């Protein structure tokens, strides 16, 4: 008799009861994978007083929510979270477990994977179900999770398959998977989880949490003005801020600008930064490396300003402005203000 396939699980990240967008994106993707496998989509929701999140999870496609509520699970610390998730994995044997590639996900997923002695593919940009032929060992597998991610600095796209143990675990970049429309008419079940923790697992205490003054919301921004190494200096980034302010947008950056210390990493767009899909992306003094384009090429309209007519950014741009950003940006601001 064929072995029963386990369900698709999504670790739900929440902060004060607000679910992270990436978790909802993964619920939508998880639902698609589960439909192909003929299994259920289940959420793993940990925290204190978080039951209010359940209806949203149903609306985005969860069939069941494992709900672990305990004051020791708030705020997030990795040891108790890993313990609760490991207990759940042993009891229910999921087939697939998806984490967001966020600060929390990147800390938690490897901890769970090493405890389970399972595999983990980090920073996936796509996932699908397929059969897999292991020609070397003359074995074939059906319905495995194809874990797709850029490798070797983005020069190849690798497909990774875990054939040795379930759950097949991955982290997925924020903003990569599509968010479907929620259906608040959908309902599911809640499985309460008994939280069993030792003193050793709760040894880390969070004494204070300090929020950054202003959080950068690149993912939610409809307009992004991004500066690269061509901006030339930290002081000159004022031009990028001025244009963003004139258009009511956020400021993005290439890694070269971040590495030069001209702007914080929170603003970085690309393979090791944020993936964005704004209505308008203005790339100023950015060459258009494969790693940068990986994070912005799906923007609805792209304007690129570059002195080099052969810059690769022009191959993804809808509008190309060959020119010096020090001349072009002030003209754009002036023209926009004259129209506004
Ligand atoms: P450059 O490549 O130096 O380009 C500067 C551009 O500015 C040039 O095209 C030049 O013609 C133009 N210019 C110069 N002066 C002016 C002017 N006055 N007016 C107009 N144009 C001007 N990069 C990212 O951005 N995001 C990532 O997430 C990322 N992840 C990476 C991950 C890995 C594993 C690796 C290996 C690299 C990654 N990179 C990433 C780095 C990436 O390869 C490039 O080095 C980087 O994107 C280059 O940034 P840039 O285009 O600003 O700089």
From TrEMBL:
The cofactors it requires, by name, are: FAD
| Protein's UniProt keywords contain Transport | yes
Q: Does the record's keyword annotation contain Transport?
A: yes
InterPro entries reported for this sequence: DHS-like_NAD/FAD-binding_dom, ETF_a/b_N, ETF_a/FixB, ETF_alpha_N, ETF_asu_C, ETF_asu_C_CS, Rossmann-like_a/b/a_fold
**Cofactor info, note text:** Binds 1 FAD per dimer.
BP GO annotations: fatty acid beta-oxidation using acyl-CoA dehydrogenase
- Residues of the Electron transfer flavoprotein alpha/beta-subunit N-terminal domain: 8-214
Q: Which keywords annotate this record? A: Electron transport, FAD, Flavoprotein, Transport
Q: Residue span of the signal peptide, if any?
A: none
Kindly give the Gene3D superfamilies that the UniProt entry links to this protein.
HUPs, TPP-binding domain
Q: Which domain of life is it from?
A: Bacteria
Residues given in the record as FAD binding sites: 254-255, 268-272, 285-292, 306
- Annotated Gene Ontology MF terms? electron transfer activity; flavin adenine dinucleotide binding
Cross-referenced CDD domains, in alphabetical order?
ETF_alpha
Q: What family does the Swiss-Prot or TrEMBL record give for this protein?
A: Belongs to the ETF alpha-subunit/FixB family.
PANTHER family, from UniProt? Answer: ELECTRON TRANSFER FLAVOPROTEIN ALPHA, ELECTRON TRANSFER FLAVOPROTEIN SUBUNIT ALPHA, MITOCHONDRIAL
Q: What is this protein called?
A: Electron transfer flavoprotein alpha subunit apoprotein
Q: Which organism is it from?
A: Victivallis vadensis
